[in-house]
Structure formats: C-alpha cells, structure tokens
Amino acid sequence: MTQTITVSCKLEVAPDVATELDETLEMFADACNRILKVAKDKGVKNVTKLHHLTYNDVRLMTGLKANHVCQAIRRVCGNLKASYKIKQFKPTSVSLDARTFRYEEESQVVGLTLIGGRKKFKLLIGNYQRGLLKGYKPTSATLVKRRNGDYYIQICVDVPTQPPGKTPKTIGVDLGRKSIAATSTEKTWSGEKLNQVRDKYSRVRANVQSKRTKSAKRLLRRLSGKERRFQSWVNHNISKQLVAEAGKLNAALVFEDLTNIRKSLNKKPCSKKERRKTNNWAFYSLRMYVLYKSAIAGVTVLFVPPAYTSKTCARCHHIHPEEPKKSYRRREKYKCGNCGWEHNADISAGLVISQLGAAVINSESSVMSCPLEGQLNLLPMGLH
C-alpha cells in the first residue's frame, strides 16, 4: 500500500515563458468554467457523461491539449461532488498527468506541456524536497501560480507505507482549545499562542469588514491565508512529534472521535466569541495530518468515543457528578472525589483515552468500572 504526499517545488521561470504559463492558466480556468456551466445546466456530475457533453466544444474553443481538457473535466466533477457553491474557477492552477508532466531526477528539471507545447523548467529546491523525491517517478502534479507571481509545481509522490504492527502499548491524546493536545506520556502543546493569533486576526477582520472596499477585501483574503497557514504549521509540528513518539515507543495513538462535536457544542448557550473559537477549532486538520504521517511510519491510530473521558478518574475510573458545583475539575487540575488522585486535567483525560485504546486492543479481558445513574456497571472500555 502507498500514501500520497505532495512536494511543493518552486520553478525557475524566464520572463518570456511566464507569458505562456499565464496563458495556459487562463485557458484551463476558462475550460473549467465552460464545463461547470454545462454540468450545472444538465445536472451532471459523472466524469464520463460530462466528457461526452463538453470535450469537443471545450477543446475547440480554448485550444488546450487533450489531456488538459480531461483534467479540467475531472476537476469540475471533483469540486461539484465536494461543494455545490462553486461559482467560478480562477486562473491559479493547472492539473497535470503523466502525459503533460515529467520529472527528471538527475537534472532536477520538470517538463510541462503548455498551450504552445512542451517546456522544461529547473526546480529551485533544497535537500528536503530532493530527499522526498529521490527514487520516485511521479506521474501527476499541479502547476500553481501564487499571489506574489511565483510559479510552483506540486508533485504527487506515492510513498510506500509500513504495515502497522500489533502492540499492547497505547498513547492517549486529548484534544482541546487551551491545550491543543495532551498525551498520556505527559506531553502537552499549549494553544495560547494560537488563540492569541486567532483573536488578533478576528479583531482586524471586525475593523476591516465594515469598509467594503477592494483593498479591504484583499486584506481579508490575505489575513485568512496567514491565519490558515499558521494553524497548518502548528498542526504539522504537533502531528510529526506525536507520530515520532509513538514510533519510538512502539505504541498506538488513540484519539477521541470528535465527529460532529461542533454541532453539539454550538447547541449549548454560549457567547459569540466562544462560538467563533469552537468553529475555528482545527482538530480535524490535526487528525488528518496524524493519519497520513502514521500510515507512512507504520503507527496504528485508534479512535474511541469521547463520552466521559474528561470526567473519569484515570486511577479508580470513577466518574464525577454532573453538577458543576461538585465537579472534580478546577481549571487545569483534576482531583478525584472518590480516591483523591490529583493530576493535570488534560493529561488525566489522555490517560483515560489511552486505557480505552488498550481495552479495544485487548478487549477480551479489559473492563472499566463506571457509576452511571447511581449504579456500578462493568462496561468494556471501548464502549465508554
């Protein structure tokens, strides 16, 4: 099995060739928009059906190569299946396949088929990108023009994955907003800096949104990109460290399954600020980064139900009462009212998640005592 990763490489582009690149980008976007109009008018999302409806006309009107038109049809179908709110494609990227893209490892050059024919471009990359591309023969990529005018080629590489090994060891990871992640091995990543950045951009957006000028709209897009890139950088670093630690300890990573958590949190009464922070919580992004990195490293990833993980004592497995005044948690501290055990609240939740994961792996004998509705029940840990 393989895992696809994307290697972003800057291109060395001469001024005279840049014009042809821009023309190819313009024609590809035009092709996508023509195909999109037909797809919406006919209500078609199937690649084959849309190909028969649009291929000949689009190729004649745009002058694109055959494979470019085929890639435009695939892009439109893919976007329609992902979202119904697409209005227009912009000339910012072109999808390439094996017939329109070629990577030459020895000379670090890529050959791209443009609207005027095949052109070669030198890659301006370092040892990190060379290491990722070494020994591979990629067959797909995306040509991208960024806002500053630079051209990049995003090369897709299929990296072989390691088969996940069976291990009784687990590392529980508790995700949150104040602490982005806290593990059962007592490692934490504070979300203070990230929350400060988000609050800063939120204030700036509130001041700019009332102006409704072109410069204000450009500033909003730029701020959105900066905030998104910073969040992505944070999540990449955390996921890399989590997978590295799991590989070093030969342990499985265990997370809470937070699917639809935003809906449940937004149903509760809360301020506009709290709702914004909940909606900006990028736990799914971190989850996806962990999944693809762990697939390459051969680390097992498990997901368990999130119910009671923060309320359960990691030592005696007693669940604290629902009444807020009797809560065993005080900010960052957790003190069990049953056995008196004290610990950091987020790490305590990580320990419980780790025990749940271990119970799933060793489900034959693991049980957890949980007082629910005044009765003491023995439930398999994986069902909590």
Write structural notes for this entry.
The chain is α+β, with helices and mostly antiparallel strands and 384 residues long. The chain has two domains: 2-160, no CATH class; 170-190 and 233-383, 2-Layer Sandwich (Nucleotidyltransferase, domain 5), CATH 3.30.420. 44% of the residues lie in helices and 23% in strands. The chain has helices at 15-42, 47-62, 66-82, 127-133, 192-208, 214-249, 261-267, 272-279, 283-297, 345-361, and strands at residues 2-12, 93-96, 101-104, 109-114, 117-124, 140-145, 151-160, 170-175, 179-183, 188-190, 252-256, 301-304, 329-330, 333-335, 342-344, 368-372, 375-379. It has a seven-stranded antiparallel β-sheet with strand order 2-6-7-1-5-4-3, with helices on both faces. A five-stranded mixed β-sheet has the order 10-9-8-11-12.
Any descriptors?
7-stranded antiparallel β-sheet; 5-stranded mixed β-sheet; 44% helix; 384 residues; 10 helices; Nucleotidyltransferase, domain 5; alpha+beta
Taken in chain order, the helices and strands follow as EHHHEEEEHEEEEEHHEHHHEEEEHEE
Rg, alpha carbons: 26 Å
CATH topology of the largest domain: Nucleotidyltransferase, domain 5
Question: What is the helix tally?
Answer: 10
Arithmetic mean pLDDT: 85
Main sheet makeup: 7 strands, antiparallel
Summed up, the domain count is: 2
> What form results from the Cα inertia axes?
globular
Tell me the name of the CATH class of the largest domain: Alpha Beta
CATH architecture name of the largest domain: 2-Layer Sandwich
Distance between the termini: 32 Å
Low-confidence stretches: 364-384
Measured as a percent range, the helix fraction is 40-55%
The strands making up the biggest β-sheet line up spatially as 2-6-7-1-5-4-3
| Structural class by sheet pairing and helices | alpha+beta
